[in-house]
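Researcher: Here's a chain I'd like modeled. Treat it as a single chain, no partners, no ligands.
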Amino acid sequence: MTTLSVDTTVGEIAAELPASTAVFEKYGIDFCCGGRTALAEACQSRGLDATAILDEARRAAGSAAAAVETDWRKASLTELAEHIVATHHAYMKTQLPRLEAMLQKILTAHSARHAGVLVPLAETFLAMREELDGHLMKEERILFPLVRALESGTGSRAFHCGSVQNPIRVMVMEHDSAGEALARMRHLTGGYTPPPDACNTFRSFYKGLAEMESDLHRHIHLENHILFPRAIQLEAGQ
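Model: Modeled as a single isolated chain. Structure tokens:
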């Protein structure tokens, strides 16, 4: 077990204490794309007490609910990749088209009054969706088969992309792009707060965006801070 301190990166803490992700979300601390930042630095930029946050993360990890969480650092890479596909990829493949359908209805009904928010929001969401569609496909058809091959001992030589670090590098860049899109959408919507005249579809759309953000944060965290480093380490040891 890692000795955690305020100098430990946010991503390492989230990997060591999975329940800490709820604490980080509560305080707006980025544990996925910004997970390479030390907790002390992440808290300083938000005016938070890093020691208090770490203590709260430890308490969350000691809760009854946390006891049943899977420690993905100990699972096989194949199991983790399958979990990501079955849980997070499946979620995105359902929710992205659902959210886009709601967005189109909202644009038709509300863009005249809320163009300042909805137009850039739609541009950001649609660009993110297009990139994510390709991203999920590349993980399922290229990266994850390569990870499974590494773990099974067949190595990476049978794959045209060569080292596992090559597709990982691309995936991390696309994660950063998705993280920037999420941050922009949160900013545009004032933290996904619907306007007073919002209809039910408008409110459901904002709620859906917030839920998607939470799921994508966990998705990216599992890959950036657990799957990818372990795959690189495995390849280096072969």
